[in-house]
């Protein structure tokens, strides 16, 4: 080993040109990007479907104006005429009870959002609430909207 000073050895570094760059493969990254995009579009579409049903929920002072809800929540809609709609399907109270019982067996802490139209009969909404209780579902929230501002602009619903 050559030495410039007494008792010290000279270190030989690799030249920068000897290091080969690692090739970046774009095809797998693009595949993952498209899979994520498809996943989020489908998830958004399913969550949006429940709030598109034409139901005008009652106003409350603490009503929220955003339409977000947790992915695992079940949205039960009660229309003006008393029809019960879950995931786009019209159900009877017996069918709703059966569906909720099956869900409660798998997920005992299942959350349900009850969206009753403000012009529907109070008894119809109470029947759905009673059905949830019979099925063993205790985590029930009522969808409301913020009251209309003094200007008369229509608020969005929760």
Describe the fold and architecture.
The chain is of the alpha/beta class and 158 residues long. The protein has a domain at 48-142: 2-Layer Sandwich (Nucleotidyltransferase, domain 5), CATH 3.30.420.270. 34% of the residues lie in helices and 13% in strands. It is built from 3 helices and 5 strands; from the N terminus they run H-E-E-E-H-E-H-E. It has helices at 26-51, 93-106, 122-135; strands spanning 74-78, 84-86, 89-91, 111-116, 139-142. Strands 3-2-1-4-5 form a 5-stranded mixed sheet. Helix 3 (122-135) links the parallel strand 4 (111-116) and strand 5 (139-142). Helix 2 runs parallel beside helix 3. The radius of gyration is 29 Å and the shape is elongated.
